[in-house]
Amino acid sequence: MMRVDGVPNVRVCTLVGNKKPRLEIQNHIRLLDTFRLTQKFSGLLKPGFQYTHFNDSRGMSNLFYGFLKRFTGLGRVATTSKLKRSTERLEVDNLVIGGGVSGMNAALKASNTKVSPNGSRQGSVLLVDTYGALGGDIVQRWQTTMGYSELLRTKIEEVQAVISKVIANERIKCLMNTRVVGYYKDENTFLAISERSTFEIRAKNVFVASGGHEVLPLFPNNDSPRVMLSLGAQILMNQRARLPQSAVVLDLNGLGPLVAADLVERGKMSSVKLTRTEGFSTEEIDLCNQRSIEILPKSIVSNVKNSGSVYIKSLKEEDQKKYDAGLVVVCGRYQPNFELALQLGINLRLVTGTAEVRILQGAAGVNAVSATAVGSLVNGSYGLGSSSPEESGQIIFDITTDEYMRHFAKSSDSYVCLCEDVTAKDMYDSIEMGYDYVESLKRYTGCLTGPCQGKQCALNTASMLNMMNPKTSGLLTTPRQPLYPLPLWSVASE
Amino acid sequence: MSTRSADLLIVGGGVVGLSVAYNCAKRGLGKITLLDRGRIGRGASSRNLGGVREQFSNEPMIRLMKYSIDVWEGLSKELRWNVLFDQKGYLMLARTESQAEQVKQNVRLQNSIGVNSVVLERDDVAEMLPQLKMDGVKCASFNKRDGAVHHDAVLWGLERAARRHGVEIIENVEATKLCTTSGRINAVETTAGTISTQKVINATGVFSRDLALTVGIDLPIRSFRREALVTEAYKHFLKPVFWDLTLGLLLSQTLRGEVLCDTRDPGNEESRDTGVSLSFLKKLAREVCELFPALGELHVLRQWSGTYDVTPDGSPILGESDEVSGLYFASGFTGHGLMVAPALGRLYADYLISGKKPKLLEPFRLSRFAEGKPIVEPLVAGRKIA
Predict the structure, then answer these.
(1) Residue A390, pLDDT score
(2) Same domain for B213 and B258?
(3) B256: closest chain A residue by CA
(4) Structural domain tally of chain B?
(5) Percent of chain B scored above 70 by pLDDT?
(6) pLDDT greater than 70 at residue B201
(7) What is the average per-residue pLDDT within B123-135?
(8) Do A80 and B297 touch (CB under 8 A)?
(9) Do B156 and A51 touch (CB under 8 A)?
């Protein structure tokens, strides 16, 4: 748990990057590295140990919860900023959630659709996005790059063209830096929060295009400060932060070569290595060779040490090699933001392969709202979404197990859930003990219940369950409102 | 499963059903089977806030809970599983004259039965709850033997103990019909065949009425939707379970540090819907900010809802049916099922072995409604209190 800009209890994994947030470790005592200390003892603290080992809750459990847990993590409630905030009520014809390419295309399409009974009026569109700029992750990632290959350059130009069309369209209103935190059936309302205001939005049609999250794969010490998701590393470069001189890029979503090139071009890194469990195309090899990026195909990262050593193991041979690298940049598998879609009753087909995830399509009617999911998360290798829904299906989780899951399912220093510190071994053992369906596993280990509410761990949890017991695959768990931690005062106004 | 039989069939794998199963198995009651229509404890048993209290306003319930807390205190050792029973105290806040009067009257009644609850004056309340805005606070009742448990831990502990003692637990099977011959239970039809048995315990919460109707008994039980939410985990700042009688606002900080919150919602009515509502979120946020202005920064993590099995007088229906022998009721807890479950397990084991109804259960008979002797309990979270 961190303190960000003075606000305690923040898990950095749930935070959209501000310009320059002030980060502090909570309850940190300088002389004592409490993180390392607790990690040392974490092997003793198996999930459920407080139920089996301390038979007197007034004794040892109180010591565990009341002292140790607070000592290593929990913060005080921040004294309220007493911000008086207004609640704005908005009524629109179309609500588009997510300002990526898919969302923008949906907005353009909706703005051209006639809505009134006799078809005389064109609908109003409200587009809501968490970032300060349109274009979604693609823009956050690649806008400031020069374009390493012709293909990427054309794709970026395409995105820019769509952005200008949206800006030029008078019927589309954009609400930036605003996050939709849930759909509430009782008032038929979407609740959205920005730093200054709370919005209650009612819409006749809604398009869900809210993208997804990169997820850390399992490998030892994947929670170490040296490990960073690729989007995070690229946002840091946008902010001209100074990064280490060397990195190992771990590719599970196909964006690895581009991210590695970006680290060399913009991050001015002198040594970048790229690993992947699959092979590489000639284009990718060319891209890397031009920038002297060392390619390590058919291999996995087998350990990361805080000292800066990264161990890489070839899938063919047993031996592992040690490299020095300041940073491990993970291009992780994508976990789609399916929560809102499920709250709306949209039928989804979620396919998660080793390298890509797609929300293909879905549509359903809920109350007066007709809801549609648009676009895909990773289309091809360049992160561009498609614009129109094509197929319909039921909720299908086609979750495959990646190489990292197979290797480190029993590892006691690979974390599945970063919020509640659940390791792969904890989870493996709990499933073996009989907590073998999502609801029970969630309650027993605490995964999916932390501040991120499963945004970082749902995919790995599902993969693990699926690997150990293929019968349990299916819908994960009921996605509960709010989708992001919400301060009480933000909804307290009349 | 067509030729199955059991000496005792418990329908409903919530905390009450499990507790009865475990206790009966431990006392050697023969072959015990427990059925649940879904998974163990997936109903109200895992959707509550875990409060445990002796502070009721009628004698039978106070006596029952007094016994139950005795059992709670030793339950972790007995089950070899820590149920995280935290006796942190339970505080009921009165902010009107009539509530203050009621609170004092309740404490007098509780004291006369041997429950050591006390009336806290304004200063004591301020000391115990430093964040509370004291405007209009009259007094509060407080009992330090009360507290809260972790409902999942209770379920796991009871389930393990029940299995250890040979209880057969069948999940995802629903009892569809009770069968009788000449006024006696002889079998239960389920979605997976018939189970022959002489004794059935109906512990199916909000579904109890449906099951009892299959033998023509109309239990006066309705389902009542309740919502709650939980915040992120924080350092402990709230010691006792806090309940404001005016608003119905209930706050309880768990051992892990999260704050469980609950309030009365006018939108709550007879419903089995388990979705959540914006009106509840807004009402609760307003009330917390009003009573505890310093707690506006609490971050809501998730909302959920569950159902109460509510009776007309707010007290459970317990004991054997007068019309159908061999059919036992254990439902209508009106939100108090978890806290009485440990006592109930023991009492039912005594009951079924000796055939004599324990004194503590006697007042809760179904016929009390017909006799005009309801056990009126106004202290029900989520309902209007005078």
Answers:
(1) 36
(2) no
(3) A65
(4) 2
(5) 97
(6) yes
(7) 94
(8) yes
(9) yes
User: What are the start-end ranges of the E strands in A1-59?
Assistant: 2-4, 7-10, 23-25
Angle between helices B151-164 and B337-354 (to 10 degrees): 20
Which residues of chain A are modeled with pLDDT < 50? 352-368, 376-396
Assess if residue B209 is contained within a domain: yes
The two tokens of residue B101 are: 């009067």
B195 and B166 in one domain? yes
Q: The complex's ipTM? A: 0.89
* Strand partners of residue B10: B34, B201
Residue with tokens 């033998």: B215
Q: Is the pLDDT of residue B353 over 70?
A: yes
For residue B178, the tally of other CB atoms under 10 A from its CB is 26
Residues of A in contact with B227 (CB under 8 A): none
Distances (CA, A) of B158 to B16, B28, B90, B115, B168: 10, 16, 25, 27, 13
Query: And the tokens for A111?
Result: 């703005």
**Average pLDDT score over residue span B45-55:** 94
- Element holding A69 (H helix, E strand): none
Query: To which residue do tokens 């605003």 refer?
Result: A178
Rounded to a whole number of angstroms, the distance from the CA of A82 to the nearest CA of chain B is: 8
The candidate with the shortest Cα–Cα distance to A272, out of A257, A293, A290, is A293
Sheet-wide strand order for B327-331? B168-170, B32-35, B8-11, B200-202, B327-331, B317-320
Per-residue CA distances from B380 to B13, B14, B51, B263 (Å): 24, 20, 12, 11
Burial B179-190 (b: 16+ CB within 10 A, else e): bbeeeebebbeb
- A54-93 pLDDT, tens digit each: 776 667 777 777 777 767 667 778 776 666 678 999 999 9
B292 to chain A, any CB pair closer than 8 A? The answer is no
Contact at 8 Å (CB) between B241 and B91? yes
Both B237 and B142 in one domain: the answer is: yes
Q: What is the crossing angle of helices A438-445 and A458-468, to 10°?
A: 120
Q: Which domain does B257 fall in, by range?
A: 88-146+223-308
Burial class, A417, CB count within 10 angstroms (exposed 0-12 / middle 13-18 / buried 19+) = buried
**Do the domain assignments include residue B299?**
yes
Q: Which of chain B's residues have a Cβ under 8 Å away from the Cβ of A7?
A: 297
Where residue B36 sits, what CATH number does that domain have? 3.50.50.60
pLDDT for residue A357: 33
The pLDDT, as a whole number, for residue A351 is 52
When the pLDDT of each residue in chain B is averaged and rounded to a whole number, the result is: 93
Among B308, B329, B351, residue at a domain's last position: B308
Residue B378 lies in a domain: no
User: Residue A182: closest CA among chain B residues belongs to which residue?
Assistant: B278
Q: Are B296 and A487 inside 8 Å of each other by CB?
A: yes
Q: Which two tokens stand for residue A276?
A: 């992947």
* Shortest CA gap B294–chain A (Å): 6
pLDDT of residue A279: 87
Residue type, A105: N
Closest by Cβ to B299, choosing from A70, A478, A487: A487
Contact across the interface for A77 and B275, Cβ inside 8 Å: no
B 52-81 residues inside an 8 A Cβ radius of A: 76-77, 80-81
Written as one string, the DSSP assignment of A90-141 is EEEEEEEE--SHHHHHHHHHHHTSB-STTS-SBPPEEEE-SSSSTTHHHHHH
One domain, residues B209 and B251? no
In a domain, B53, yes or no: no
Higher per-residue confidence, B267 vs B323: B323
The position carrying tokens 């006392």 is: B27
